[in-house]
Amino acid sequence: MTKTHIFVPCFIDQLYPQTAINMVTILKQVGCTVDYNPNQTCCGQPALNAGFWNEAYDVAKKFVADFANKEQVVCPSASCVGFIKNHYAKLLGTDVAASTLAHLQNHIYEFSEFLVDHCDLSNLTAQLEGKAMYHDACSALRECQIKEAPRLLLSKVKGLELVENPNSEVCCGFGGTFSTKFEPISVAMAEKKVEEALDLSVDYIISTDLSCLMHLQGYIEKKKIPLKTLHLADVLVGE
Question: In this protein, which residues make up the domain named Cysteine-rich (predicted)?
Answer without folding.
Answer: 6-84, 133-217
